[in-house]
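User: I'm new to structure prediction. If I give you an amino acid sequence, what do you actually give back? Let's try with this one:
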Amino acid sequence: HRSPKQPQQRSKVERGMRGEEQQRRLRKEVENNAFERSCQQLNEKQQTELLNWHHQLKGSQKDCPQKLQPRQKNFRKKNAFLATITPTRNILRMTAMLYILSLRNISAWSISKANKLTARRTITSCSPSILSPTTNALRHQQCSQGGSQQAYSTNVRKMNQSIMRRFSSPSTNLVDGDQVEEEEKKAIKIPRKFNPVPFEYHQELTLRVVSLTNLGIGICRTQIDTIIDDKEQKDNSENNDSGDDSNSSSSGWVIMVPNVIPDELVRVRIYRNHKTYSDADLLEIIEASPNRIHEPKCPLSTICGGCQYQHMNVQTQREWKREQVEQLLQRVGGLDLNSFPRVKDTVGTDEVYHYRSKITPHYDAPSKNGGLIGPIGFKEKMSRRLVDIPSCAIATERINEKLTQVRDEVRADAKEGRLRRPKKGATLLLRDANEGVITDNNEYVTTKVDGLTFRFLAGNFFQNNPFMLPVMVDHVVTAATKPSSNGTIMTHLIDCYCGSGLFALGSASSFDVCVGIEVNDRAVEEARKNAELNDIKNCMFVSASAEAIFESADPVRSATVNSGDDDGEGSGGVLVRDFPRESTVVVVDPPRKGCSEEFLEQLYEFAPQRVVYMSCDPATQARDAKGLVGNGYEIVSSQPFDLFPQTRHIESLVVFEKKRGDGETDNTGKD
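Assistant: Good question. You get back a string of structure tokens that encode the predicted 3D arrangement of the chain. For your 671 residues, that looks like this:
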């Protein structure tokens, strides 16, 4: 049974189809008439050149099956020339029109996705972005060879660009086929969202490298006129922690280039324009630095984002890390160079390769057909694409041996459908510890630092350079235990962001009382177990955010108290808020984002005699240093560490001391 409305609905569809057909025929007639009129306006020489070009393309017509050739009745033949030039394929028709436009510089016709010449708005030049013809012969050839539609579209785009280069100006002459093929090989696909201001896509420049960002990227400058409004300048200054001012309105447009050294002269190629700077690829080192390593140990160092400095010798790496810490204290911290001691030379060890005890390579989701895994490795420089890493030059030898096995297992599991998350990618873990190379995030491992044993989950945070870690702990302990300027001995230590208790437990023997605080519950449990494992009695660990430490209601047992008293109610208990300010040290080791505003406000109010600030990001450390200096502290030392050679990462230790005579605390800890 049919409802009475159905015939009427079909009638509307039919009428719509007839209307579309009428519009298509009318549009076709307009296009043909315009094409004929344009051809008739050519002089004899121009007609001859176009005819020669037409015959060159028509020579491949025999490769096109007859059924794929357009019907001749679609083209009108009003004179001898038009009959000769009438194209037998859409590509020939398009070429003739482009040639006419290039000679006469008249209004262009854009070509729609349906490959029909359509009257659009008047423009005075052609661009490859408006060309998308369908070439039946090319389609037949590609499909007969088993090619994909994507490959076919790519070939069409290359042909469009080649044709546009031929007829880009009225004075362009026809070239032979060899030159065309060479040009087609050089055809470039411009990204759809590319911003052509101030540089064109793949425009090449020769520049001098002036500095490095704290991300390890080279900074070049070129003088162009740019206008940036106040809001953009403000946003840029707030978000720029690169160690160099990239405000292009003051000292030139900034161009970021990887794998370079300051003072080198380089040739670069632009691939992205931002609002205030551009990104470029390195093409050639014209004048190399004497500090350049021309053959890095890792063959993937120029593309892998894991290492940024393998093209520099280690001495240059460490000098730049020292200079970057100093620049950030001035630029981000707003401190005058004369207001704090010179930043000390970067401390490092001889192990500059095969030192890292933990790596986390990634892989994307396996393919749907066959379950094949793509690259297993790390992100490409200045990109989110993955680079396949069969071995890592900075990872320990034991990790590299295990990595080969893990990669084979992952690929086999993907192919046989045994992956736990088959529709998503994943991150692998390889942790080198006393138990061997561990790949399970939830397995406990142990390691020794300065004679202390630390036990933690393999997936939890713990510093990954076992050669450098004891050196860093010694510097923290030395800075924390040094008597104050008036001779006061430091007796109490507060370790904020303590993790598994590395600095608190490492310093415990030098203090009466140590307290650690960490927001990660598992890490706090590990710290307590590590205190028991090393028979340390004077440390307490709290699971809370760092700012809560100053209000903790849990008493802390002093090392001077008889350790045999296990009732927990002894007279040796003391609250953190009652710690004597003049002999209290606060050790801070926050994550990359730095200290929270709430914690800093309470730290200013608590006003300990000394703050020992260890940071993995000197930019946020410099930001927090500005607040500490503004609240009665002064910098007494700044020491960078080369914890991860060959990379841009810096560990920085800055020691702050309470100024004497500036609201100094009394013996009770009250201001």
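You can read the tokens as a compact description of the fold. Here is one thing that stands out. The radius of gyration is 35 Å.
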